[in-house]
Structure formats: C-alpha cells, structure tokens
UniProtKB/TrEMBL annotation:
Protein name: Unannotated protein
Example of a GO MF term: N-acetyltransferase activity
Family according to the record: Belongs to the acetyltransferase family. RimI subfamily.
Pfam families registered for this protein in UniProt: Acetyltransf_1
Keyword Nuclease: no
Annotated Gene3D superfamilies: 3.40.630.30
Domain N-acetyltransferase intervals: 6-150
Species of provenance: freshwater metagenome
InterPro entries in the record: AcTrfase_RimI/Ard1 (IPR006464), Acyl_CoA_acyltransferase (IPR016181), GNAT_dom (IPR000182), YpeA/RimI_acetyltransf (IPR050680)
Keywords noted in UniProt: Acyltransferase, Cytoplasm, Transferase
C-alpha cells in the first residue's frame, strides 16, 4: 500500500475504538480513552484519520493554542509504517490550517524516534528545546519541535 491508497477524513467520538486499537499497538504508554474523547470533542481541536477501505490505519490529534497548532498525538498502525501515512496526515493539517499558519506548529517527539524526527524535519520542523523525562513509561526526554514558530516565542 502507498499513502495514495488512504482516505483522510475528520474523526469523531464514533472512531474511539479504532483510535484506541492503533494507540495500544503503537505506543508503550498509550493515551487513555478519556484523553482522546476530550480532544475529539474540543472545539479547538482538529483530528483526522487515515483509512484504507473501511479500516483506520493512522490518526493525528491537533489542538489550537494561542501561539500554535499543537500536534498532540500522531500514530500509524505499525503494520502500515513507512508508507507516507504520517506525512499525509500532517499535510492535511497544514492544508486545513493554511489560513492560520502564522500561528505556527509544534510537537514533542522522543529523542530516540529518529524516523519521526527525520519526517518532521523534512516538513520544516526544527528542534527548539528539550523536555527532560517527559515520557512516563521510561522517563525519556522529548525534543520540542516547531514549524513556523512565532517570532515572539523566546527560547
């Protein structure tokens, strides 16, 4: 499968079961159902799923803050890695928010997740800091990345 084979659409509460299944397969310390439900129902969130046929193969959860679009969670089912799905999900976010892109985009990524860091850099994200011990499962540091960060943000 290539990324061209997926449909990207907005997510809602009815997608929680599939989101949770992917989350558990993708992450050692998965988000809770309540965390996803909260983001899916927030008026400041934009959430997309990638679907092949009727099955979800990935998702992205984004929240609008005063100074940034924050990529809160991005996951692709491990059986569908390296097919451009995460790139497509991020590109949909950029397309949908293009009239508000001056807000900037930010995310955190495990410092050991080199493939994700490479993807983010290829899309224009830059390292802007570190959150020490950010991940609860192993206290790994998170790299803070920004794309189009507002100039008034001090680092």
């Amino acid at each position: 499968m290539t990324a061209v084979d997926v449909e990207i659409r907005r997510l809602g509460i009815s997608d929680l079961d599939e989101i949770e299944q992917i989350e558990r397969r993708a992450y050692a310390a998965p988000w809770s159902r309540t965390m996803f439900a909260s983001e899916l129902t927030k008026p400041t969130s934009i959430c997309f799923g990638a679907f092949q046929d009727a099955a979800m193969v990935g998702y992205i959860i984004n929240s609008r803050y005063p100074d940034a679009w924050h990529v809160m969670n991005l996951a692709v089912d491990p059986s569908h890695h390296n097919r451009g799905i995460a790139r497509r999900l991020l590109q949909r976010l950029f397309d949908v928010t293009s009239d508000d892109a001056e807000r900037g985009y930010t995310l955190e990524v495990r410092v050991s997740n080199l493939s994700a860091i490479h993807l983010y850099e290829s899309l224009g994200f830059e390292e802007r800091g570190l959150r020490r011990g950010y991940y609860t499962d192993n206290r790994e540091d998170a790299m803070i990345m920004w794309k189009g960060a507002p100039s008034e943000v001090e680092w």
